[in-house]
Amino acid sequence: MSGTAAPVETERIGAGWSAMRVAGGYGAALSLSLYLLVKVVWVVAALLGHTPSSFSDGDWIVLNAVTVAMSVVGVVLGLVLAQRWGRRVPAPPLVFFAWTAAGFLIPMIPYMIASAFLGGDSDGGSGGSDGGDAMPSWEVVFITIGFAGMALGLALALPVYLRERWPAAFLGRVGDRAPARLGRTRLRALYLLVAVPVLLWTYWTAGGTLGLAHRDVMDVNGRLLLGNSALWAVMGTVAIRVAATGRPRMPLWIPMAVAFTSSGSLFAWAAWKLPWALIRPGGYTAAEYPAVSVVEYGLSIAAGCVMLAALLKAVRSREGELR
């Protein structure tokens, strides 16, 4: 995926779509700023000696410093998506941060809706104050708006931004051109990498307990998260297969957007959860045995990277045909 702008004749997009990109980008940045504010308050409070009872001062400060950095990147990403100068940002860092941010948040939209009806907790393992210390209501509201607003803003702004900057990846229909040669070996490797975590997540969602060290941790909210992850992983794998085989015919942007989001979700959430499962800061209790976590999240990270590599190869193939 090159960092150069697309030819003028292929990059034009309706004013309404551009307005949606601007609104989504600014909305994402503003929403996540509320989450960032809460995290900064927590860091300052910890430096003054106010730390949740289940965490040491050092663990709490490091954890929230990491999420502060992640939030700053998210706010900047929202501004990049909203501004015209955002199209001049070098492609590699832009794609990586957009990929991980989309993977973290966009798949959470259906989960957050379902969780609201079921009364679950949509914190998603973000490192909130879950050690028994109740948060003030304003913190809960700011965190909820931060997650939901950033997710919705990305869902609106990111596809339009990518369509404007790399139109070859989204224009037309599947099968209009020869499909990218991803190779049977790569596809089979992807299927195998995705199969293990998907089977585990589906099994646990259905109520299975094999591989779980702490079954009480796997509540309704946890099973809902796992089911959502399994669904997105399957959707991403199917989307890559559509791009590789050129069928069935559908608007090209559908499998490209699904594969981009799904691969980011496989990578980002596993890369976030694996250190938690192994280091277990603040007495954090993982549902799985450590060895199971290594296999589960290691394969998920690998599957996300393989899926992104296949997606980028398909994009480069289409860009080459249009030159």
UniProtKB/TrEMBL annotation:
Q: What's the protein name? A: Integral membrane protein
Q: Where are the transmembrane segments?
A: 26-48, 60-82, 94-120, 140-162, 187-204, 224-244, 251-272, 292-315
UniProt keyword annotations, A-Z:
Membrane, Transmembrane, Transmembrane helix
Keyword check for Membrane? yes
Which source organism?
Actinomadura nitritigenes
